[in-house]
């Protein structure tokens, strides 16, 4: 069943009530994979949508020795690879390219940073960017602290004139455990103030994730249901069909718990659980999310085997081809115990959600690529339609689909046409692309635009970042103390059998996706 909507079929997308200030977008690691696959194509799309200011420049800072022109050619290649609908010839491209510059870090970082400072000082008055610089750390996480310190040391973290703004965007992962996250925050805050720091999680830029607040708080029929009186359980699935690809060195030190649960999953959970904020101001929203993180029940080390399941994909056949096991992947320890899958059960111990289990699962090489929030309501009393129809009545489900097909669906009961009372569940679907005439904007477009606007609503604050690590750290400690195993699972499956046992012990099952 499809959902008919009375909406304008044309999506206005990323238009804003106010314009972006003139600024220079400085990419640390501008020759890397993140810059070429995500950042530069996103900036080009914003340029083509006329959402960037006239006074705008991109300055890449990286190890290679490139001229402005040779770097522009590498960017042209990246834009072309991002999709044929992005032209790399003509006036749009020429205007964009002429605002791209390159500064080499060289062998001596101190001299490289001085070269960067001098280049910014030269470009600023010529382009008219008014001292506004946005620094983006597209570099390995181990380099975040030293890069932030160095920016402070050379005087780039603050505009000495007091007229311009300076902002810093930091990619995940934010630390590898609670202690390192606290230390990273301490170092960042020694050079930048909290209101200058934008800790980015690209999941929060996805349209459906942002729409959770609208769906909950702009619809009278939804919000009264979202509490322990009516909700039986909530499932959050973040599944990938691919393996770790070329990320072996990173992933083997990280694992699924750190890579996905500590950030993506807990951020999604907080949006489902939070109370209505007093406004959509960044800190008002983040204050309510912080209360959710504080309310998540912390596990004791002896509980981890009751509340979590670790898994690691093995080799096998996938879509008719042989797939390597995780331990056979490049840059992975042949004896690695790193989890590529985790299932866990959480509770949020507050008035609204007391006693409602939140089941989460995420992994690589699973049956399909899908991210979904499934909110299952409690079952109605099954006495009205007689004994013969008891098994036909299934619980209502509100499902928020985050990827790949962004939208919302609801499962409810309907009478099958006929003379008797046959009952069957049906689905009512809302899909962004079909309802609004085009697909949702890329998450990085949204987040880069917000960072340039100074809107921190979709970015993590220091206290909430540490709070999510306080949830995850006891699990890491428990796995270490208990020496828990990562159970094997076949590629193309939904994880190890033990993950089904985790939820089956509570008389429930994972949703079929």
Please give a handful of descriptors for the protein shown.
single chain, nine-stranded mixed beta sheet, alpha/beta, 513 residues, disordered N terminus
Describe this structure in words.
The protein is an alpha/beta fold and 513 residues long. The protein is built from 14 helices and 17 strands. The protein has helices spanning 33-48, 68-82, 91-97, 109-127, 144-153, 178-191, 207-217, 248-273, 282-295, 304-307, 432-436, 443-453, 462-482, 497-504; strands at residues 23-28, 56-62, 100-104, 133-137, 166-170, 197-199, 231-239, 308-313, 316-318, 321-323, 341-347, 357-363, 370-377, 397-403, 407-415, 423-431, 487-489.
SSE topology sketch:
Elements: E1 23-28, H1 33-48, E2 56-62, H2 68-82, H3 91-97, E3 100-104, H4 109-127, E4 133-137, H5 144-153, E5 166-170, H6 178-191, E6 197-199, H7 207-217, E7 231-239, H8 248-273, H9 282-295, H10 304-307, E8 308-313, E9 316-318, E10 321-323, E11 341-347, E12 357-363, E13 370-377, E14 397-403, E15 407-415, E16 423-431, H11 432-436, H12 443-453, H13 462-482, E17 487-489, H14 497-504
Parallel strand pairs: 1-2, 1-4, 2-3, 4-5, 5-6, 7-12, 8-17
Antiparallel strand pairs: 7-13, 8-11, 9-10, 11-12, 13-14, 14-15, 15-16
